[in-house]
Amino acid sequence: METPAARGSGPPEPDATGEPGGPRFRAGGGRGQGPERVRPNGRRATGADRPVLPGLPAEESLLDSSPTTMGSPEGRFHFAIDRGGTFTDVFAQCPGGHVRVLKLLSEDPANYVDAPTEGIRRILEQEGGMLLPRDRPLDTSRIASIRMGTTVATNALLERRGERVALLVTRGFRDLLHVGTQAREDLFDLAVPMPEMLYEEVLEVDERVVLYRGEPGAGMPVKGTDARVSGRRAAGPDGPLTGQRRASLQAAQGTCWRCSSLWTWGACEGSWRSSCLEASAAWPWCSCTHTRECGLAGGAGGRWASGWAGSSAALGRHRRWAQHEQQVGALAHELGFTHVSLSSEAMPMVRIVPRGHTACADAYLTPTIQRYVQGFRRGFQGQLKDVQVLFMRSDGGLAPMDSFSGSRAVLSGPAGGVVGYAATTYRVEGGHPVIGFDMGGTSTDVSRYAGEFEHVFEASTAGVTLQAPQLDINTVAAGGGSRLFFRSGLFVVGPESAGAHPGPACYRKGGPVTVTDANLVLGRLLPASFPRIFGPGEDQPLSPEASRKALEAVATEVNSFLTNGPCPASPLSLEEVAMGFVRVANEAMCRPIRALTQARGHDPSAHVLACFGGAGGQHACAIARALGMDTVHIHRHSGLLSALGLALADVVHEAQEPCSLPYAPETFVQLDQRLSRLEEQCVDALRAQGFPRAQISTESFLHLRYQGTDCALMVSAHQHPATAHSPRAGDFGAGFVERYMREFGFIIPERPVVVDDVRVRGTGRSGLRLEYVPKAQSGPPRVDKTTRCYFEGGYQETPVYLLGELGAGHKLQGPCLLIDSNSTILVEPACQAEVTETGDIRISVGAEAPGTVGAQLDPIHLSIFSHRFMSIAEQMGRILQRTAISTNIKERLDFSCALFGPDGGLVSNAPHIPVHLGAMQETVQFQIQHLGADLHPGDVLLSNHPCAGGSHLPDLTVITPVFWPGQTRPVFYVASRGHHADIGGITPGSMPPHSTTLQQEGAVFLSFRLVQAGVFQEEAVTEALRAPGKIPGCSGTRNLHDNLSDLRAQVAANQKGIQLVGELIGQYGLDVVQAYMGHIQANAELAVRDMLRAFGTSRQARGLPLEVSAEDHMDDGSPIRLRVQINVSEGCLAPVRVVIPKGSILDPSPEAAVVGGNVLTSQRVVDVILGAFGACAASQGCMNNVTLGNTHMGYYETVAGGAGAGPGWHGRSGVHSHMTNTRITDPEILESRYPVILRRFELRLGSGGRGRFRGGDGVIRELLFREEALLSVLTERRAFQPYGLMGGEPGTRGLNLLIRKDGRTVNLGGKTSVLVSPGDVFCLHTPGGGGLWGPRGPRPLCRRRSCSP
What we know:
The protein is 27% helix and 23% strand. The protein contains 26 helices and 59 strands.
């Protein structure tokens, strides 16, 4: 029979003084406290002292909701509720000052409709002592406020359960969000899985806004017209524009803009070519007024709109010129759309792709949130009219429920936890920086707090890039439910998860083995401490037997490998296997923490680990120890820390607007005026919510960047007061320089600074702060029971303590378990836990006992070293991206970093650019052979020659040999390769399509000492980069500054790798680290052998020969032939041997031109290999290189195409495949930085080969030139189609067209350089992918409608 306390209805047991322990809230803001009622025995009277009425439902509470004392600002309830995906946590401040906490299932339709409402109902029942029927709205007279964080938006996005949405976008860009950055998330997954788009329909709108660059004819009528657009006079926002009004508008905006109706461009296919440039130049402030005639209005539009809940509009350049989006939005409302999201309102920041995704997410999620809010309100009398209801946003601030939108709600749940530990752990730990560690069932969230919240303004969730202020929370797919595998000699944890159903094996529903099962096998979880909610009937306890059985199957695989593998070893016990998986999971969770700290210049050991979430307590000590931390802080409400964070959070209102002013003395007055206006908006909004001015604070920000770069920083001046040479709001310039140096390691003082956006964050402080009345000790802590837990070295007797019985000052020596109804905390050996005065748990982490890791192969340590080596390469990449200056490296991510063993063999590489990674090993090994003993400490080498392992000349490889005391030869190498936008040669961009010798392609480095004896050789490398100018018809580098800056960044990235490997050697010893470098390389070979063995065995079983072959051709007819002979003998395969004929295009002479080999031939080689193995049909087989330049600018891009279909999947459309994964420049960045207009960028529908599985479609990309320039194109698959496989049809060839201003169309062929003039248009049609398994009808595509007049 359940006791009242177990149901959460009774008071806690008093301590020796009769006073229950607990927190106390104090209220600020001028509100008085109500009088306290005191019972004769000295205890404060509470609602819980009333008897429970007969008939109250005896519902199980998963957490004891006994009240603890707390101050109250008034005699009403304040609720803070975190509605998670599995559980809902309720934190209630009750009249009289005490706190109740409650945990219940988020979904339990058999018992209640809505978990937060049910939680409130239960607490009101318990406090009021009366039955409150579920079928009646709750009385709100005693409820002062409700604060809520929710995963409703997150889950809807992850599971794609939002509303039906239509996207309205500028004509020519219907597939812009589908293509996105054109990069794929998993480099080596041929199926290229990508989340589906949020919208179902696309409507294209005839409108366009472009930057005004002062072309001739500005302000003059279009020839042959009367300055009317679609029957209306060209106008600004308030009517026809005179020259004076144009000037004033331009001054107000800070940038001269030209808004052009593309009616002529898009509607009349036969006439736009001769008039488009004149049309764009005629009326700088011409507003599109013909949207009604574009199919957006009328009966058909109204009938179409029915059935769609939301629409989103994402029109180019409308962060600054919002009128077109506003017109479209108004018409959509008239048509009956219930919700309309405009990108200019969702987040007015530059970059149309993430802004468009944000608007779509807002339209997709906001109706779902509003529906949930409306349903929540209906559970209360008056629909919460007189109750303050606030929701947590992704940025860590609270917002009124009426303004809570989908794009700001995705991190609503996790944000509460960050606020919770920031408001508690940071303060009580003396201001030491804190790492938040929130380990759940499917993933782990990590974050950092060092006195202020760390925000990002662009992040991806569930494949959707959101452009909105968000707390910087990194997620790794490793949680309690992460699945465990043994693959090719490696222990693998995740990313696959068992989910809530069937869940881990121990849930008794036939689920797979997981991290939770491993902890259960090790004795670190006690089934008796969990409720009986498992099994098909949800009435059984956790099953250790099921965990052991599932883990034994994996252990059998492990021991088979150990006894029969390349290095025979003794088998492992079941506990050793479980321990191995736990250690690998811990290392996986350390990687994002290292990314938050080491990769940003912070020392992880200087942080406190704040652990919360249901599974985190079992791993906290091990995580802290691995990162060198000496303190773990676990809040007394760690299982409900997100709800507590909601109670302590502030209300936030933000205002932001775009700006394109230089940060200079002449603009400071304008900046101050804008900031003052936004500050007034924030203050007014918060005062309207009831905050007095004394409780409102504001913080001003400028979004600043160096001119000519794309990396903007949102800078506050709160630590930089105003000077005589700054705006009155503060010295933002000093803040920018300080942060830029801290983030990137350099500044660019000679470049002006540009303001992209102005922003003000207003905060209404709640006035609540948490205090605690400590529960006094009543003797030594009582051991509830003793169990046996497995640690390194075997089982140990482990006492178990109940958290509710511990008082301040109690100290507990590890190993021990601390348990409450919500979490299990493992205090490992050599660690000590102490109950603080605030009732929290502080664990002092001792040093791990000296290990005995040897050089012999151990699969557990192999997996751990694999994570550590990969983390090093990843951090090198982050340093390179941070410290580089060029768009190619910083934005397009055209770089790679890797770690190499003492023989130059590749050990680990981050998932960067595939074409770099294989060749970099050859580059390192060439230097070892070429220089021999002539390598010295302090040397850094530079190479790009194809004979030295280079790919093409713009890819400069920087190699650092690393020496160690007592060693005469380098003990390992680190290297980084980056694509430099220009290194000289016959064409801007150093990608000449018609080069005949290597020297015509730019500067050549065979083995160049970039750094010698620790000194950067700037003069020598400058001379070498300018040397191509001595060759007739060639130029030296056209961008020396960026070359030097990026080379320094590559040296810095290498230095980071050296530092991290040095730490690894210090921990394990040089011999062990070098041994595992070799083991990692051998394991990679083993994985390939396993694949080939499985392939050969499969062919043998079908009676097929063990030889496969394939052939394809380059467009000039050069054949690429592959023949593979597989030798299956005694269960082992002979080593793979690659034979390449001398003089072939894969082994050219030292002076041959090779620029296309890296970007074209490599793609064809991969297609041939995949074709030989029958893995998938051909992808586009090209990178579609486009280079544009003149005397003062240069631009380079590679463009996506169609991916090949494979067994079980359609080819992905509009994506980079195989050997590249560089990003495409956002259209708004492209047009603001370069003299082009992107006229069209969409899928080339139908270009993928037909078949049972269709090939992906290529893209169409059209550039309108605004200046004279040299255009170079270097492409393939213009003659030979991408092949289909097994009867599938081939993809469509690519096509390169140049449409001259006079209307002539020229087929440029696959490779050419040509001078272009203003008004010319380059049309790039990229190839589609091949189909698979016989032709069928076209695959259904996303339905689209055009807004044709």
